[in-house]
Amino acid sequence: MPYQEGPMTEAMYYVLLALSKPTHGYQLMLDIKEISGGRIEMGPGTLYGVLTRLLKENLLRIKQDDGRRKTYELTIQGRIALKSEYERLKSMLKDGAFLEGE
């Protein structure tokens, strides 16, 4: 199933963001916590649900599977989707900037 353009869930965004370098599931959980400044602690159930969805949508692939652990990496389509979502989020912040003057 190809990726359907549109807003991502927060979990999808942070998984893709953390996959700026190939890594495995447990390290992804640690990286997401670090990237978010501790705001997001993603559990294994959420993480592996998101990974399954992103694999189906061809936004990431399994780079290595040694039978014990899988290493995931972004596809080109995944990088494009991540950048698109980042630009969407920046636009939303810009649109709401007037709130700072209140």
Protein model, in words:
- The chain is α+β, with helices and mostly antiparallel strands and 102 residues long.
- The protein has a single domain, classed as Orthogonal Bundle (Arc Repressor Mutant, subunit A).
- It has helices spanning 10-18, 25-35, 44-56, 76-95, and strands at residues 23-24, 60-65, 70-74.
- The termini are far apart.
- The relative contact order is 0.18.
- Residues 20-83 form the Transcription regulator PadR N-terminal domain.
- This is PadR family transcriptional regulator.
Features:
102 residues, alpha+beta, Arc Repressor Mutant, subunit A, 3-stranded antiparallel β-sheet, 4 helices, 3 strands, Tscrpt_reg_PadR_N, WH-like_DNA-bd_sf, PadR family transcriptional regulator, WH_DNA-bd_sf
User: What's the story with the biggest beta sheet?
Assistant: 3 strands, antiparallel
Task: Give the class from helix and strand content and strand pairing.
Answer: alpha+beta
Say what the CATH topology is: Arc Repressor Mutant, subunit A
The stretches of 5 or more residues where confidence is low (pLDDT under 50) are none
Radius of gyration: 15 Å
Shape: globular
| Content of β-strand | 5-15%
Integer average pLDDT: 93
CATH architecture: Orthogonal Bundle
- Strand sequence of the main sheet, in spatial order? 1-3-2
- What is the end-to-end distance? 45 Å
**The CATH C-level class name:** Mainly Alpha
Tell me the total number of β-strands. 3
The helix count comes to: 4
